[in-house]
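Inputs:
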Amino acid sequence: SQTIHQWPATLVQPVGSPLSLECTVEGTSNPNLYWYRQAAGRGLQLLFYSVGIGQISSEVPQNLSASRPQDRQFILSSKKLLLSDSGFYLCAWSVPGLNTEAFFGQGTRLTVV
Amino acid sequence: AQTVTQSQPEMSVQEAETVTLSCTYDTSESDYYLFWYKQPPSRQMILVIRQEAYKQQNATENRFSVNFQKAAKSFSLKISDSQLGDAAMYFCAYRSAYSGGGADGLTFGKGTHLIIQP
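Outputs:
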């Protein structure tokens, strides 16, 4: 069966520091991968998606970037965090070629102080 | 672009009763998928139920069922025999059937906070 792992679960970082959140998927090949952000009291906003190694599409211009160095690894990064980057970040995957549901990791709560 | 609207920020129901959560969406497409996700206090998003727009029959998963009204662009979730474990945020989500194999993700509503009264 497929599983998705996301870490760390919580993170407190000072303004101006770098960020690296990692997500890996097991039990499937060439998944579609996504990073979402959930601000307090809001729905989920798609930040990035990827259909393959090195292929990243950005949905929202921002202080963040994403990379996919391996087939089942998806990384969310920032060189210098802003206070507005605080939120709950969720990684997800879906079966390639099918417009069906996405399966989510457990999320990372990022607080920028 | 598609939009998803959940007009009920919060709903409350007595344990064992039935509750219906509302969702409307706006799209010009004829084929798409609709989902309800549950987000408990642990914050992990859990798929509750899925509906394919080309299917007229409403989806059902145990105590969870939907009322899909394509012409009205409405997709409500009914929870029967509510249990304390049903307490969570519930999100309605949309995905186009034409978006290149699911590459561009889901569009979510802002969620409904469901409270279960014991």
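Remarks. Chain A is about 0% helix and 55% strand. The radius of gyration of chain A is 13 Å.
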